[in-house]
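Work Package 4 report. The design task specified in the project plan requires that, given a folded chain encoded as structure tokens, an amino acid be chosen for each position. We show below one input record used in the internal validation round.
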């Protein structure tokens, strides 16, 4: 009868040093790759030893996903069966991952390059790089988006490096001031070209200043028009002072009066 104890045939060195990494439920395929790296490192090839090593490393939340296999394991290929079912039952479908990618993922406190790697993990091979770039850059701070728009032709990974430098110079959430060019001296080496962040920031500062001047001119023009309209309105609405020597009609209509009642001293030649 085979010994079901996974450490029964292990050497003392294996019992002391062999340890699997904590289970990674969000990426079970990657976790099994790490596990198999450990198996290879320590020369573990026995199916039952691999199977029980994984079972003993599962938290109860995830063991419950494969409780049927744990209770009644197959006679052969135990490890492969456990691996296949655990991956299938815990892995989000690719459609759900793409939906999550398109609708819910935000930058948060991650560096832009970390966020890009996270989106790539969700996208897999089904989302092309140009769409991934649009999704990724659209969720970066506006100032970063503006700078990246000037280097659209650069590879996505190079753009991510540049975005990291921008975020270090101008932390997310700083919406009141632009980064001082004197604080930016970094350069990013891209494929065949070198871009200096400070140069791009100078250009954007100039554009921003021009837009502010135009907005100020429009605002002053609106204020002047409003002032003239109000002045004309006040002039039209100012009431005429009555002359006690004139009758009601001449006080009301002046030279346009068609009637006159006595006494009235309104000049007849007007």
């Amino acid at each position: 009868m085979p010994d079901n104890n996974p450490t029964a045939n292990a050497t003392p060195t294996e019992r002391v040093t062999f340890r699997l990494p904590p289970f990674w439920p969000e990426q079970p395929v990657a976790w099994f790759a790490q596990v198999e790296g450990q198996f290879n490192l320590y020369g573990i090839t026995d199916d039952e030893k691999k199977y029980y090593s994984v079972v003993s490393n599962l938290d109860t939340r995830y063991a419950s996903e494969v409780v049927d296999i744990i209770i009644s394991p197959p006679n052969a290929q135990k490890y492969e069966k456990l691996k296949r079912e655990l991956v299938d039952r815990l892995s989000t479908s690719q459609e759900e991952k793409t939906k999550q990618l398109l609708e819910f993922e935000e930058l948060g406190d991650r560096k832009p390059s970390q966020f890009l790697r996270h989106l790539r993990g969700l996208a897999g091979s089904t989302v092309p790089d140009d769409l991934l770039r649009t999704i990724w850059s659209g969720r970066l701070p506006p100032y970063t988006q503006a700078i990246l728009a000037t280097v659209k032709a650069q590879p996505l990974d190079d753009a991510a490096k540049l975005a990291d430098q921008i975020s270090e110079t101008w932390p997310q959430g700083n919406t009141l001031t632009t980064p001082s060019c004197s604080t930016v001296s970094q350069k990013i080496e891209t494929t065949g070209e070198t871009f200096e962040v400070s140069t791009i920031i100078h250009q954007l500062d100039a554009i921003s200043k021009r837009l502010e001047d135009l907005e100020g001119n429009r605002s002053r023009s609106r204020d002047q028009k409003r002032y003239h309209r109000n002045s004309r309105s006040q002039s039209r609405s100012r009431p005429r002072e009555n002359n006690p020597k004139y009758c009601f009609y001449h006080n009301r209509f002046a030279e346009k009066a068609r009637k006159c009642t006595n006494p009235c001293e309104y000049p007849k030649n007007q």
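Residues 94-204 form one domain. Validation will be extended to a larger panel in the next phase.
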